[in-house]
Write a structure and sequence with these properties.
Blueprint: E1 9-14, E2 17-22, H1 32-47, E3 56-61, H2 72-76, H3 80-98, E4 104-108, E5 111-113, H4 115-121, E6 125-129, E7 133-135, H5 149-157, H6 159-168, E8 172-173, H7 174-180, E9 185-187, H8 192-204, H9 208-219, H10 222-237, H11 243-254
Parallel strand pairs: 2-3, 3-4, 4-6, 5-7, 6-9
Antiparallel strand pairs: 1-2, 7-8
Length: about 260
């Protein structure tokens, strides 16, 4: 079965693994077209018979930025109702990444901020290059992570560390992310893909049915995460009507620091 023709995501196969590459320069911002392409890529991968499907998937990005997060220019054109519909769609697409039956490895060679970090968190493993910067920036924009960040990060690194990441909205170096457990491996610049391929090959050498069932067993029932993500969605809806959210978008356009009033 041939791969779908996509505009902002490239699909390449090599041996027993496949690579999905985000390709929306300059920063691979999460606009609707890119997110839709990512969803189509996941649907295609999931539709493949187990005997034909890759045994591991690498998620990488073109350019120097993994993903800077939301397309704020596109977001400015959205009404509150539009955003209320968009965020669950984005979260649902990341859930499709997380629900792929084969292991997934994110390669972060530059910035992974906000939704970009949430996308990396939706993968099973993360390889970061030394120059990478990672963080959940949403509270600096008077919103909260709404595509799984409030649920997947605490499960990965523990609630206290996750609160520090989310409350401060600070970007972290690759070394800091490794120390906190947010990434699994840090490699020198330019060696992220090589490290991910080595990891994918190690996975592919093992029993593919066993690997898939091991992933399913570790991740547990989908109902628990689905309920957690629904809770995140309801919390996100609380920031939508705030003046602070509007101020954050205005400050972005005007290239200034926002002035939040808590309302």
């Amino acid at each position: 079965m041939s791969a779908p023709a996509l505009t902002h995501v490239r699909i390449e196969s090599a041996g027993h693994f496949a690579t999905l590459t985000l390709d929306r320069p300059p920063v691979n911002a999460l606009g609707r077209a890119l997110v839709e392409d990512l969803g189509r890529a996941c649907a295609w991968l999931k539709s493949l018979p187990a005997t034909e499907a890759p045994r591991a998937v690498i998620l990488a990005a073109s350019g120097k930025c993994f993903c800077a997060g939301a397309d704020l220019k596109e977001r400015q054109t959205m009404t509150v109702d539009d955003v209320a519909r968009w965020v669950p769609f984005l979260s649902g697409t990341f859930t499709r990444v997380a629900a792929l039956p084969m292991p997934t490895i994110a390669v972060v060679a530059g910035v992974a901020a906000g939704g970009g970090m949430e996308l990396a968190l939706a993968c099973d493993l993360r390889v970061a290059e030394e120059q990478a910067q990672l963080g959940l920036r949403e509270t600096a924009l008077a919103i909260i992570p709404g595509a799984g960040g409030t649920q997947r990060l605490p499960r990965l690194i523990g609630p206290a560390r996750a609160k520090r990441w989310i409350f401060t909205a600070r970007m972290h170096t690759a070394a800091e992310a490794l120390a906190d457990g947010a990434v699994d491996q840090v490699v020198p610049p330019g060696q992220g893909m090589e490290a991910a391929r080595t990891l994918a090959q190690a996975i592919a050498a093992n029993g593919p049915v066993a690997i898939r069932l091991a992933k399913r067993a570790i991740d547990g029932e989908d109902s628990a995460m689905a309920a957690a993500l629904d809770h995140e969605r309801r919390c996100y809806e609380g920031v939508l009507p705030t003046e602070d959210r509007k101020e954050a978008l205005a400050a972005f356009v005007e290239k200034r620091e926002p002035s939040f009033k808590g309302r």
